[in-house]
Amino acid sequence: MSFRLFDAPLREPSQFVGFAGNRIDRQSENRSSDCVEVALKDHRARILPMRDGRLYLKLKDGVFDPWFNLTESASVETQLAEAILLGSSDGIPILAAPAALASEALPETIKAIDYRSVYIQGLIDEAALGALAQGAALLSWNVSHRFCSKCGNPSEMRAGGYRRHCPACGTDHFPRTDPVAIMLTVSREQCLLGRGPHFAPGMYSSLAGFIEPGETIEAAVRRETLEEAGIRLGRVVYHASQPWPFPYSLMIGCFGEALNEDIHADLNELEDCRWFSREETRLMLERRHPEGLMTPPPGAIAHHLIKTWVDSEG
């Protein structure tokens, strides 16, 4: 068997999905107990203010800027006591922090835009989008883990938001990432796509589901496809992954080989599930399908899975 590492592309597919462009030095091994306080004393510090699943953006001459300095962050009532130190970029501290000022009270020069719209509309560059994913996930985790899961007492933020410590029982808790398998099932010249009841009109996508404890990625891909569509899979191969800050997941993209084609969709999970030919799927990618059907936007890993298959040689 050949060793495929050195045959792989220099830039793996994961680098081309939304939220994956983070270039911050996270400094995970060099975080002191007062690292946030030290970072906030640096006048160069840059802050990403967030609230209720929305990123606050400065708007000037039609250009959105997500980076606030300390003075600017005060204008949206950023809660610096709960700030997360994401790391540094070119020696400049980078933080994320919750904003207290509600979106309806913002001045005209500042907009609060939900994370999905920020990435779908390409409002900020890849590096900032990656920082958004990191900051949103860590802020969400800290909010949802304010109490120790071992003894139930309040926990305290440590290491700039990368650890929570329980002073009552001494337990340390660390950020979690929920793994999700997302898979494109293929059978000869067709692929399997489904749509959930919450999807945009005409949108079809790859199937997906959480990986369960004690389960391999490949086993999760096979199980989810069988449960949702009644399709048994043979070979499964990994393609790419994507940070997904809703609230703190990692999408793990795979291709699966269908062993049968008779669909038995779980209509409690899916509104519809069907096979699409390669040419029909290409029209959906290009937003030219005669019925107005489409695939997810280019930033989504589902889009990359579908496009990779469509552009392949079969």
Brief digest:
The protein has 314 residues and is an alpha+beta fold. It has seven helices and 15 strands.
Note down, in words, how this protein is organized:
The strands form three sheets. Strands 1, 2, 3, 4, 5 and 6 form a six-stranded mixed β-sheet that branches. Strands 10, 11, 12, 13, 14 and 15 form a six-stranded mixed β-sheet that branches. This protein has a three-stranded antiparallel β-sheet with strand order 7-8-9, with no helix packed on it. It is of the alpha+beta class. It starts with 34 loop residues before the first helix and ends with a helix. It has helices at residues 35-40, 70-74, 115-120, 126-144, 217-229, 278-285, 301-310, and strands spanning 46-51, 54-60, 63-65, 84-89, 92-98, 110-114, 156-158, 163-165, 172-173, 178-187, 190-195, 207-210, 233-244, 249-258, 272-277. α6 packs across α7. The chain contains seven helices and 15 strands. The protein is globular, with a radius of gyration of 22 Å. 21% of the residues lie in helices and 29% in strands. The model has no long low-confidence stretch (mean pLDDT 96).
What structural keywords apply?
6-stranded mixed β-sheet, alpha+beta, 314 residues
Taking pLDDT < 50 over at least 5 consecutive residues as the criterion, the unreliable ranges are none
Q: What class would the helix/strand composition place it in?
A: alpha+beta
Distance between the termini: 23 Å
Overall pLDDT: 96
Strand percent estimate: 25-35%
Helix content: 10-25%
Multimer state:
single chain
Q: How many extended strands?
A: 15
Rg, Cα atoms, Å: 22 Å
Helical stretch tally: 7
